[in-house]
Design goal:
496 residues, mainly alpha, three-stranded mixed β-sheet, 21 helices, 3 strands
Length: 496
């Protein structure tokens, strides 16, 4: 049933209004950051208020205007979209608190600009989650790109400015492909609406046209950082660490994989994807990215860059799952979106805490760090265990579903890829943990170290995300995530 509601508009206005007050109170840091926190909390509450309606099997709609025949510019919130919105809005609260400790701890410049564009980045991310069709998604997808550029280039060093230019070059080029995909989809199907099981009229186009459209759609979602269109992501590590957390866990890259899942499940549909053999194509891209990115992560000594290549690999787990075109695979993919968000944001917030507290950026410099920053490194260990698929962290749950998806697809090759990639996760994460807890610092006595934990503003958020990473494993239905995933998969019909 369709439920018309103003709730999506109210949720999307929270970061917009928040950005206005951030700018107005820029000269008063405490008030400025209070407005950021207030906007984040209000948005999260509004998003959570939609859960009962969606769990009742309804779709929440809010239409701004009709752009073209059969294409409304507006929101249509289903179970899958609500999952993304819940994660983005909830984690915005924690990242906002973390940002206070990080930006003040390093005495960063242009903090008002930083918080202003952070609000707009969340505006773009939640707009993508709420989008009812490709046209609406395109608009918010590009807002997300433009609003995150000043965050990537925030430091204004030559390295940061280069990272910003590369970021914009890749993602605006990707936006051109996205726009082309919107136009072609409308040409072939007469609509761009996300439809359970895929748009029926789309199947009437020729096989060649549908293959080409899928390729263009994938290029339109370079935010998913699939190889070989991934290099913008490690370069973007020049950004402040809270921005890296935003890019890698909450907003940008999740918008990319979210968009590809939308195309597979709600534009093409599982049956059409299977008939065209496109699942094999997507699975091959994902498998290649999972393995190669993990190998590249092993070679990185810089902690943030190792985490960046880990993100590239982990995002492709989501593409891998949906490419299996069966219920278990799609469930695993959808579950990995929120679970990866909590684990990866934990890892990046730990990296930022290490930078603020010790000034260390390289793994080789982190010897003995776990003894003076035990909470931070314990949280990092939890995130690393989850990324490797080891219980009791939630990465185990999503990888379990992905493994069941490979068996349901009768593909031992894909199961082997999943197992090898998880083994490589262990290879590049566990040396960090060993170095921090068991190696002895060079050139100083451990007891005389002046390094201590970062401020409470940073420590509490990273501890919370680490704890939630365990809670999601023990109680996967926290925030109704499992209910929403099962509802989303049940609604896809066809082969699923």
């Amino acid at each position: 049933m369709i439920v018309e509601s103003i709730s999506p508009l109210l949720a999307i206005l929270c970061p917009v209004i928040g950005s206005i007050f951030v700018a107005l109170f820029g000269k008063w840091p405490n008030l400025r950051e209070c407005w950021t926190m207030l906007a984040a909390i209000l948005q999260c509450l509004i998003v959570f208020s939609m859960v009962p309606t969606i769990l009742g099997g309804n779709i929440i709609k809010y239409t701004f205007f009709t752009a073209f025949p059969n294409v409304d510019f507006g929101f249509s919130i289903d179970a899958f979209g609500l999952i993304f919105a819940i994660i983005a809005s909830f984690l915005w609260i924690l990242v906002s608190s973390y940002s206070i400790g990080y930006m003040r701890g390093l005495n960063e410049h242009a903090q008002t600009r930083y918080y202003f564009f952070f609000c707009w980045a969340i505006f773009g991310a939640v707009g993508v989650a709420f989008a009812g069709n490709l046209l609406t998604m395109f608009v918010f997808y590009e807002i997300l790109t433009v609003s995150t550029y000043p965050l990537v280039a925030h430091d204004q060093t030559p390295e940061a400015l280069f990272a910003g230019r590369k970021y914009v070059a890749y993602l605006l080029t990707s936006g051109c492909f996205f726009l082309a995909a919107v136009i072609l989809t409308y040409h072939f199907a007469g609509t761009t609406d996300f439809t359970n099981g895929g748009i029926p009229n789309l199947a009437e186009a020729s096989r060649g046209a549908l293959m080409a459209l899928f390729a263009i759609s994938l290029l339109g979602f370079m935010k998913a950082a699939w190889m070989p269109f991934h290099s913008w992501l490690p370069t973007a590590m020049a950004a402040p660490t809270p921005v890296s957390a935003l890019l890698h866990a909450v907003a940008v890259v999740k918008a990319g994989v979210f968009g590809i899942v939308r195309v597979v499940c709600y534009i093409y549909g599982i049956d059409l994807m299977s008939d065209l053999g496109l699942g094999i194509v997507l699975a091959s891209i994902a498998a290649f990215t999972m393995i190669v990115a993990s190998l590249m992560a092993i070679a990185q000594d810089n902690l943030k860059k190792r985490l960046a290549y880990s993100t590239i690999s982990q995002l492709s787990y989501i593409l891998f799952g949906v490419a299996l075109l069966n219920p278990m695979g799609v469930e695993g993919a959808m579950l990995h979106i929120p679970f990866h968000a909590f684990m990866k944001i934990t890892l990046f917030m730990c990296a930022g805490a290490i930078i603020v507290a010790s000034g260390k950026t390289n793994i080789s410099e982190m010897k003995g760090l776990g003894r003076v920053m035990p909470v931070t490194m314990a949280a990092f260990t939890i995130g690393a265990l989850g990324m490797s698929g080891i219980p009791p962290v939630c990465g185990f749950i999503s990888k379990w579903y992905l493994a069941l998806g490979t068996l349901e697809a009768h593909s031992l090759v894909m199961l082997a890829v999943l197992m090898i990639s998880s083994l490589l996760d262990i290879v590049y994460f566990f040396p960090i943990i060993y170095t921090a807890f068991f190696d002895t610092p060079e050139g100083e006595e451990f007891g005389k170290s002046r390094i201590k934990e970062a401020s409470i503003f940073m420590l509490v958020p990273l501890a919370m995300t680490a704890i939630f990473s365990i809670i999601f494993c023990l109680f996967p239905n926290t925030f109704h995530i499992m209910d929403l995933v099962k509802l989303a998969v049940a609604g896809l019909g066809g082969g699923v």
